[in-house]
Design brief:
This protein is of the alpha/beta class. It folds into 2 domains: 4-93 and 206-245, Rossmann fold (3-Layer(aba) Sandwich); 96-203, Rossmann fold, CATH 3.40.50. Helices cover 45% and strands 18% of the residues. It has helices spanning 15-24, 46-60, 73-78, 80-86, 95-105, 119-124, 126-133, 147-152, 159-169, 189-195, 204-215, 235-245; strands at residues 4-9, 29-34, 67-70, 90-92, 112-117, 138-142, 177-181, 200-203, 226-231. Strands 4-3-1-2-9 form a 5-stranded parallel sheet, with helices on both faces. A 4-stranded parallel sheet has the order 6-5-7-8. The structure holds D-glutamic acid (DGL). Residues 9-11, 13, 39-42, 72-74, 118, 121, 148, 182-184 line the site of D-glutamic acid.
Length: 247
């Protein structure tokens, strides 16, 4: 039985995943840790991402969590094996769930898929590997690095965002599916869908909810889960963003 989850992200972006977990009431309690002092992870190398992730695991040991969910795609791309080796609790990343969510929605292996992620996630080729194992072969991968700071600036619409979208997407074919392989990108869903209106978006939050429901016996609590927020720097900013994004 899973009651308490630790959700880890490089910063505030993982709240997009928390939002889905709260909506579906999968846990009684969620402990969120954002490594706001060291964000962004998406431009760091594998060793650094693994080291920071193992430190986050130590942090969660104080809270007796049943599971650690790495909301961060960059962590999910590089540190899952190391976290599993170092931990007695369950560890769930968001990449495997994202691929499963896509597989459920598309039995057609010729479907064209655009993977969006940080530079770290795209360079790891983790999504591609798992998608190819499932028979998908029509893949494109792009790291729209400017999307993360745009979200951090609260620019969810407008000319600056539109020109960034144009910059990264102008020479791509419209895909059937777009994997939003970064915590921040669901907040830009409107702009991404406006550019590629026929593409179905795969969101890490929805994907992890489906994955957990499929895999684990989760007692659905009736009350709204408690959320405790921790940050390695400026926790007030994390709380302010949570108030904004999580209503
Ligand atoms: N949380 C990161 C991810 O999903 C995005 C922000 C960062 O680069 O740290 O990959």
């Amino acid at each position: 039985m899973l009651k308490r989850a630790g959700v880890f992200d490089s910063g505030v972006g993982g709240l997009t995943v928390v939002k889905s977990l709260l909506q579906e009431r999968l846990f009684d309690e969620i402990i969120y840790f954002g490594d706001t002092a060291r964000v962004p992870y998406g431009i760091k190398d594998r060793h650094t991402i693994v080291r920071y992730s193992l430190e986050a695991l130590e942090f969660f040991k104080n809270f007796d969590v049943d599971m650690m969910i790495t909301a961060c795609n960059s962590v999910s791309a590089y540190a899952i094996e190391e976290l599993r080796e170092a931990s007695e609790i369950k560890i769930a990343g968001v990449i495997e769930p994202g691929v499963e969510a896509l597989f459920k929605r598309s039995p057609d292996q010729d479907a064209s898929i655009l993977i969006l992620g940080t530079r770290a996630t795209i360079e790891s080729q983790k999504y591609e590997k798992l998608l190819r194992q499932r028979g998908f072969h029509n893949l494109q991968a792009v790291a729209p690095s400017l999307f993360v700071p745009l979200v951090e600036e609260g620019l969810f619409e407008g000319k600056v965002l539109e020109s960034a979208v144009e910059h990264y997407f102008h020479d791509l074919q419209e895909p059937d599916f777009i994997i939003l392989g970064c915590t921040h990108f669901p907040l830009l869903s409107h702009a991404i869908s406006a550019y590629f209106p026929r593409a179905t978006l795969i969101h890490s939050g929805e994907a992890i909810v489906e994955f957990l429901q499929d895999r684990y016996e989760i007692e659905q609590p009736h009350k709204r889960p408690t959320l405790k927020l921790f940050a390695s720097e400026n926790p007030d900013h994390l709380k302010a963003v949570a108030n904004l994004w999580l209503d």
